[in-house]
């Protein structure tokens, strides 16, 4: 019996030591909370905002990212409570809560999180009517159809294209959706949200509420030294803020930590270690855009409700865009780097504003030539990044686009009056979007 007791005690020590190590290691501190965070958050948003079946949402968007760890992560959808709970081995837990008009938020147990706040849209989403007359005049219709067909797999895998929309001169000339999806699904932006943030900056500039080049105006950087005080909104939108908010998306990097374990993402970004002076070094990182969004929304009202209404009034409602759900973190910061959900038509409509030099429905939404601002190359980006938008000189000299993780793309080709939206859940393979875009251009009649 003494031997058995010693063995039992030894096993207990090993188990306790293992749990202590696991909880203090990168795996326990970041990776496993991140795994439960992305599972709860994505299933919540894709279920309650996008209208997807939770099992399909997990199969397309989440399990490919988790890999072998996916079998350890459980998720429970509570449709009565509008929440999703995810767990790993009963030790790591995350909760995401849906609020109408505000989407889903990881609560992280925050006592200040208002679970009852609702902000429904007052108008139903609007949809373009397919302009067959314009399409048939402007395109070889068979070639256009073939270009769109080529963007889709015979089954969901491996590219998982969910939606394609094509505008020409502001008219809908083509659209197609994967089985079970339609023009009504609000689809996830991931980093296309950064283009929304840059658009908000333009609208606020037009109204005199913002000067993107003014230093010393970012409240969360007050007291963090001269370089913090010198940082501008332009630096943040261009991702030259200089802090250690590296983005690898491996579940342990600062960006994964920010998105899925932090209650206040903007404060997390603001307090990261300073590595470079503002404007000195370009590195793609979502933390800069989150901080820029926080500063902008803080000027639009005292409460999240006031701020969301202001954002809608500035950039969405005048353009007839009534579907976007701009999600916030548990502290109320609008997640301008990654979390905007909208219909494919509204992603196209938002880009069309840029082709129309900031105008929509006869109303100016952005300053004249704001497109020139967002498409001006950021030094150090090797000619591929502007301000919240990517540049696509391999398509045409003037082409630019919104881009998001897992293959979200809204591409503008000004030389041909084209806007092409491609939405999907593509992981670890090509999307075929550029091939489709070139085929659409080739289908234009001379």
Automatic annotation (TrEMBL):
Pfam families, A to Z: Beta-lactamase
Q: Where is the Beta-lactamase-related domain?
A: 161-429
What GO molecular function annotations does the UniProt record carry, in alphabetical order?
hydrolase activity
Q: Where are the transmembrane segments?
A: 6-22
Species: Hyphobacterium lacteum
Q: InterPro entries recorded for this chain?
A: Beta-lactam-related, Beta-lactam/transpept-like, Diverse_Enzym_Activities
Q: What class of enzyme is it?
A: hydrolase
Mind telling me which SUPFAM superfamilies this protein's record contains?
beta-lactamase/transpeptidase-like
- The domain of life for this entry's organism is Bacteria
Keywords of this entry: Hydrolase, Membrane, Transmembrane, Transmembrane helix
Question: EC number(s) in its UniProt entry?
Answer: 3.-.-.-
Write down what this protein is called.
Answer: Serine hydrolase
């Amino acid at each position: 019996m003494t031997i058995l007791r010693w063995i039992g005690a030894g096993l207990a020590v090993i188990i306790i030591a293992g749990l202590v190590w696991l909880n203090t290691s990168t795996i326990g501190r970041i990776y496993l909370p991140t795994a439960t965070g992305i599972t709860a958050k994505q299933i919540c948003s894709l279920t309650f905002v996008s209208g997807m079946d939770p099992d399909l949402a997990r199969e397309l968007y989440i399990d490919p990212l988790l890999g072998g760890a996916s079998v350890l992560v459980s998720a429970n959808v509570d449709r009565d409570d509008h929440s999703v709970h995810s767990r790993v081995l009963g030790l790591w837990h995350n909760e995401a809560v849906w609020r109408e008009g505000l989407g889903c938020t990881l609560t992280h147990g925050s006592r200040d999180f208002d679970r009852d706040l609702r902000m429904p849209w007052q108008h139903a989403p609007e949809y373009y009517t397919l302009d067959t007359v314009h399409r048939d005049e402007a395109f070889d219709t068979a070639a256009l159809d073939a270009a769109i067909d080529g963007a889709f797999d015979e089954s969901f895998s491996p590219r998982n294209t969910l939606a394609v929309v094509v505008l020409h001169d502001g008219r809908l000339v083509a659209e197609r959706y994967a089985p079970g999806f339609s023009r009504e699904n609000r689809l996830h932006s991931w980093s296309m949200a950064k283009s929304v943030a840059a658009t908000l900056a333009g609208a606020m500039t037009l109204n005199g509420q913002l000067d993107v080049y003014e230093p010393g105006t970012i409240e969360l950087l007050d007291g963090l030294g001269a370089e913090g005080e010198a940082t501008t909104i332009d630096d943040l939108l261009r991702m030259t803020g200089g802090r250690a908010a590296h983005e690898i998306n491996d579940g342990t990097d600062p960006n994964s930590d920010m998105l899925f374990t932090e209650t206040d993402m903007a404060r997390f970004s603001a307090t990261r270690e300073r590595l470079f002076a503002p404007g000195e070094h370009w590195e793609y990182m979502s933390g800069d855009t989150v901080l820029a969004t926080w500063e902008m929304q803080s000027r639009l009202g005292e409460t999240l409700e006031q701020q969301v209404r202001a954002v809608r009034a500035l950039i969405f409602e005048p353009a007839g865009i009534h579907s976007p759900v701009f999600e916030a973190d548990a502290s109320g910061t609008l997640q301008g780097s990654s979390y905007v959900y909208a219909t494919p038509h509204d992603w196209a409509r938002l880009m069309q504003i840029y082709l129309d030099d900031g105008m929509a429905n006869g109303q100016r939404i952005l300053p004249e030539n704001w497109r020139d601002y967002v498409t001006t190359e950021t030094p150090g980006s090797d000619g591929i990044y502007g301000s919240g938008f990517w540049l696509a000189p391999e398509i045409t000299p003037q082409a630019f686009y919104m881009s998001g993780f897992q293959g979200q793309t809204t591409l503008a080709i000004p030389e041909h009056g084209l806007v092409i939206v491609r939405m999907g859940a593509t992981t670890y393979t090509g999307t075929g979007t550029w091939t489709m875009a070139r085929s659409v251009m080739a289908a234009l009649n001379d």
